[in-house]
């Protein structure tokens, strides 16, 4: 495949080349090489478009799913998640068309194709809390080298990229909502409201933002994409102080070298660490690993079901914990209401940040689910779905009023409403990624994953469940059913799953003894090597990572523009080549 920047049917298209069809051993030159065509890499490329910086985005996969390439995501898992003997795993909590995601092995739910993880996400977004950036004495190594306020401008730009509403996720959102949620009387010293919103394509609100499609819109002459090109090694100079080039391989047996003054790793929380560790020809411990930090502090978001409601209790709870809308730039944006542990109780009891979000399991005769299937042409029981809608005229009418007038979520007929939880993890140096003996088809060692879920996060999850249960009963809401392990306080029987949110493995910090990149996301001691994505999170928070990692990626792009401008000002003028890809 060879796609050039030009006109196809009158439309300008992106520049994309396929390593499988290029000459073996080709040498490629760029100012900046971006390793990974997922959300972080594409966001940076968009920010650098139409500048004088020659950018090459390198993607291991192609434009669509290929089993051969996906096999490169294999890991050796020697740690958690764990499931006790008497408990069944609920996976990652997906239902309906996405239920298959529950069965993907831990830390293998990754996507090697242009667009990366955005191919299998549901668009759920939230920003980190201000407290996530602060040093918390009860959580070792907590705190970021940058202030929360420094990230706000980039956070707003990331929100625009995801077609989100205002970045408000706490009770300050109340004042912006079309109809304010009821004051339930919950004790704010224990619980706080927390909201999530959902990214979507601008043309289709029913589909999350797909970064593969955003990549197709990049038509700038200074941006190249190279697909089916797996980076197998980062090369540094003989002193191990400056990045020089990348080695690439394709499944068709082709190889290439990419020479760039600046390289940005955007491969995700697993691959960024793996690639640094495997690039050990000059630095035996791996690049950036002089203090044995690369791959350590592996975090995810331990997920489990916190509590549940059935029968009549569902409606009484769902009317408060559902979607709430506001008008933003001519469109209605909806936010999902949940609950989080207050900062006060976290500090008093030494807990981590965690939040619970409502999940409804729709009944087979739910009219709104039936109507959705009918309108989308996906129904397998046309008559039954038609009857479900016809027999629930009142619910449909009420739902239309709630949605269009009150800007609220739809009322559903459900068999269960539960609160699921995602918890922040305390940093643990022994929760880590190392290299396995087993190797992939390119001879690269697989990542060995030893994810550890500590007692502090388990205690935090249990405490949140108990507080919700007690507070609901106190204010007159139905009391939920708690999982057996929470009710009996048996942590050993708890059931958790990863959420495919690996983070902190190349964490940001000022001290190279406990971090891999500095406040500008450059690897300590390695000039020109930068990292983007959730692997640079200093702490993982409880929020889904995409909005946050995009904000950091946009901030990095701004830094690289300034860095490139400063570098060019000290060089004599040279003529620019016509192409970013050149054969040596």
TrEMBL record:
Q: The FAD dependent oxidoreductase domain covers which part of the protein?
A: 31-269
GO molecular function of the protein, one example?
Answer: oxidoreductase activity, acting on CH-OH group of donors
Keywords of this protein's UniProt record, alphabetized? Answer: FAD, Flavoprotein, Oxidoreductase
The cofactor(s) it depends on are:
FAD
Pfam families cross-referenced by the UniProt entry? DAO, GMC_oxred_C
What highest taxon heads this organism's lineage?
Bacteria
Q: Which segments carry the region annotation Disordered?
A: 563-584
Q: Where is the Glucose-methanol-choline oxidoreductase C-terminal domain?
A: 429-553
Which family is annotated?
Belongs to the GMC oxidoreductase family.
Protein name (Swiss-Prot/TrEMBL): Glucose-methanol-choline oxidoreductase
Native source species:
Rhizobium freirei PRF 81
